[in-house]
Every structure is written in C-alpha cells, then in structure tokens.
Amino acid sequence: MSNTDFVLAIEDLTVSFDGFKAVDALTLYVDKNELRVVIGPNGAGKTTVLDLICGKTKSTSGSIKFKNKELTKLSEHEIVRTGVGRKFQTPSIYENLSVYQNLEVSYPKGRNVWGSLTFKRTDAVLEQVHKIAKDIMLEDHLEMEAALLSHGQKQWLEIGMLLMQEPELLMLDEPVAGMSAKERDQTADLLNRICENRSVLVIEHDMEFVKKIAHKVTVLHQGKILAEGTMEQVQADERVIEVYLGH
Ligand code: ADP
C-alpha cells in the first residue's frame, strides 16, 4: 500500500513549545474505515496530535495529509470543510434546544451566511436528522430539551451533531469519560457503526473500552511512538508495560 492510499498520512510532524517538543517527528497513517486509538501517559502529546490535525495548533515542521490534501497550512474552518470532525471532552451542545433542533442546526446549511442558526425543516434535513438520531440512540428523545439528557446522551448528541456534517474523519477525545458501564458499551457499538462509513481516531485511557473498539492502537510517549499494533500486540510490549500499562 502506498502512503497516498491512507485517509490520514502524518509524516515527520513536530511541534515545539519554547524548545520543548510536545510532538516529535511523528509518522502515523490511518486507513479508510479504520478505528485507531491513541493511548499513552499524561503529557505524551495525544491531545496535541488532535490539535495539530484540526488546525488548533500549528506545527513547527512536518506534514499532515488528509485525502492527500495538506492540512498544515489551512485554517481550522478550512480543515472542517475538508471533512475532519473533532469532538472535545466537554459537550458543546445547545442545552436549551431540543435534540431535534441540535441536530438540525448542525446540518451544513443550518447556519446562514452570518453564522446565526436557521431552522429549515426540508425533507433532506428531516431524513438526515432521523437517520442520525437512530444511530446515536436518541430517536425516542427528539423533542426532549438537550439539558434533560443524561451525561452519556449529551456526548452522543454531540457526536450526532458532528455526523450531520458527514465527516470522513471523526476525532474523539476520551469519549466515555464519566459514562456508566452500559453507556460505555453502547458507545463502543456506536463507534463500531460509525467507522463502517468513515475513519475514527480516538484518545482513550479506559483499556476495557479500547479493547472493544480498536482496530489498531498507537502508544505515544514523550511525543514519539513507543509501539503500534493490535491491542494484543501493544499489551504484550515490555516498553509499553513499563511506561504506561504497568501503572
Ligand atoms: P496528553 O494529551 O498526552 O496528556 P498533551 O498533548 O496535552 O498530552 O501535552 C503534551 C505536552 O505538551 C505536555 O507536556 C504539555 O504541557 C505540553 N503542551 C501542550 N500544549 C502546549 C502549549 N500550547 N504550550 C506549551 N506546552 C504545551
């Protein structure tokens, strides 16, 4: 497989903060329909990698190609338009709107040219909202005010809002933090469904959850890759046990 066949191809990526390399010559390839999990101790550089991909942080050197398009010179908005969606740990949903409206305003045309929200119940929007509400297990809560959802349901709603924009790469930072065991299992099923149509990149600490979802695991340590492979492979790697899993 040539490097141009990957959806995401990160090569020799470095970012320095006052001389400190938070990400150090990182090379990482993610396939179409792959669900990749990035693990590693605190301060390893995991969040910074997602920040670099979505343009929140600018790299010092190296390249990030998404569908063969170079992202390092693009703005955050331009990167979203290429098909990259990022979910942060704290959900940014509209608490006072219904589940339906939250999904509706996330439809790419749900904002007018001035950036304010518009509610257009066209057939295309209606169809998309219902399809995604089913995926995120909220089809029976469409008229409920988002503030009344459980913590887990709010996380799913935000994932749904990102899916409304049909990203080809979805990035999630600790998606099951604070969830119940049942919600964690449901989220694993949700992510497995999501990657049938797109690639998913997840940062996660919950190893039981990682086992359920990861096609491949990348272990970061001090901004570099310590190990990469299936969960079984990285779990058996002595360096990984020493710096991360052994604690
Ligand atoms: P992780 O997500 O693996 O816990 P981070 O990516 O948040 O790690 O951070 C990696 C390292 O980079 C940490 O030492 C952190 O303090 C440092 N870092 C991250 N962002 C900045 C920044 N904007 N300025 C200075 N240092 C930063």
TrEMBL record:
NCBIfam families: urea_trans_UrtD. InterPro entries: ABC_AA/LPS_Transport, ABC_transporter-like_ATP-bd, ABC_transptr_urea_ATP-bd_UrtD, BCA_ABC_TP_C, P-loop_NTPase. This is ABC transporter ATP-binding protein. Residues 8-247 form the ABC transporter domain. GO terms for molecular function: ATP binding; ATP hydrolysis activity. PROSITE patterns: ABC_TRANSPORTER_2. GO terms for cellular component: plasma membrane. PANTHER family: CONSERVED COMPONENT OF ABC TRANSPORTER FOR NATURAL AMINO ACIDS-RELATED (PTHR45772), HIGH-AFFINITY BRANCHED-CHAIN AMINO ACID TRANSPORT ATP-BINDING PROTEIN (PTHR45772:SF8). It comes from Sulfuriferula nivalis. Keywords: ATP-binding, Nucleotide-binding, Transport. Signal peptide: none annotated. CDD domains: ABC_Mj1267_LivG_branched. Pfam families: ABC_tran, BCA_ABC_TP_C.
